[in-house]
Amino acid sequence: MNVNVAQSFNFFPVPTDIHFGCGMVRSLPERIKSAGGTKAFLITDPGVRAAGILDEVTRPLEKAAIEFAICDRVKPDSGSALIDETVAELKRSECDAVVGIGGGSSLDTAKAVAALATNPGPALSYAGLHKVRNRPLPMIAIPTTAGTGSEVTLWSVFTDDTRSVKVAIGSTLIYPAVALCDPELTLDLPPLVTAATGMDALAHAIECYTNNACQPISGALAMEAIELIGRHLRSAALNGRNLEARYAMMLAAGMAGIAMNPTRLGLAHALAMPLGSWGLRIPHGIVLAVTLPAVMEFNYVAEPDRFVDVARALGESVDSLPRMEAAGRAVSAVRSLARDIGIPSGLGEYGLREEHVRPVVDEAMKSGNVPVNPRRTCAEDLARILRQVI
Ligand SMILES: [Fe+2]
Asked: Quick check: 187 and 214 in contact, CB under 8 A?
């Protein structure tokens, strides 16, 4: 790693107590007790229940005689109305700990519900940064995908149901108290979900590593995540029962999540919020998987050295190449990874049309991810990138 003596920076460690390992879900009763909980409110989605993963969570609770209630109504990119309803349900249940089980939508919903249990008013009144005042109920995150890193981040992203727009609560108070990361829970995740969520984790790591806010501590974590994903995402997506690949991907998603908390991301994530909004509602992982190579193509000429590092971490032999060619290898490596794991080449099949370009770009340009992007970007640049992925 090269150091830059002119750089001053801030890195805040994650307060989440991370427990990682195969079979870790069975330690849930201990974690609830050590977080001060006695009765658990479980928040998940119907897919997690149908896959039998909810049973993996409730069995140890029954064995330990810990009471629990279940809300399994989370939908992809769940909304503010469900969060508010679930808070009322939680209060009626008299539970004193929240457990989120699932992908980003379930974990983000659970984080918001735990916060609103102790902070008055509707979810939407906390959208933005640092608006949560009181410490939430203890919240335990059990990820069942390897992608969003929500188990270790300070963000809860959900849909504002009044405007059909994605919004986020960002607060250092809403980190989960505990992350129970059990790679065995991801063994049956379907190939396209594995591929798209894995590309989301890769986008977190690459956008974090290459942006203007990156510093050495986030950079080290992001670099390790890129290397792990480059080595293991193909196997995880194409041979889902490969436990080593699943382990590596869950580790990478968590490391990328910790890396990105202080740095923000880049243009691919700026586009993800509006592309997940309105009638479009394209899944977050798909947006990232499709847009990341196009965004990297635009960015690599501005910060070639960082992209050379990315190429090397992805296993490219770059040492004998001219600098710009070596940097460009990061883009081709990500493109071929996406192709190998079955990521669609465009978002047209998800409903993206020319008429969406202007409103999506206008909304994306307001994102806090644009100012840290490694290449200065105007609305026309972003529109050009988006048109490449229709
Ligand atoms: Fe993401």
From this structure: no
